[in-house]
Amino acid sequence: MEFAQPSATGRAPADWFTGEVWWDTVHPDGAPSRKRANLVRFAPGARTHWHSHALGQSLHVVSGTALIGTRDGAVFAARPGELVVCPPGEEHWHGAAPDGSMEHLATWEGTEDGSPETTWLEPVTEAQYAFARGTSA
Question: Cis bond leading into 32, ω under 30°?
């Protein structure tokens, strides 16, 4: 058994997120395990870009209200204690509601062959985010 050194809190990259987002790596890449986990904090209105995970992703909401959108136009609101499971390959986004911060624990797996575990796509537009809130753009 060992106690791993925690990594410093980091600002999430603007290439993958809109708005102010910070994360802590909870479970880093480390063979033989393929488990990954980050505790992610979103400022009000902040969100990921569209993306998908080769082996899926689970989001456990810790605080605030999470908005999770899919390409078919569905948007889900998840609250503390709820778990959202995104299937492998499903393009989606997630972030905070406009009126409050949100924190979730994101878990996913790395691929066995070293291929990309996450495919990052374009930003969620203001119109898509406004639609998620049930308002016009």
Answer: yes
Output the furthest CA–CA distance in the chain (Å, rounded): 54
**For residue 137, what pLDDT band results from cuts at 50, 70 and 90?**
very low
HSE (side-chain half, CA atoms, 13 Å) at 23 = 23
Distance CA 8, CA 10 (A): 6
**End-to-end alpha-carbon separation of the chain, Å?**
53
Rounded Cα distance between 50 and 66, Å, is: 15
pLDDT tens profile 71-103: 988 888 999 999 999 999 999 999 999 999 999
Q: Say what the pTM is.
A: 0.89
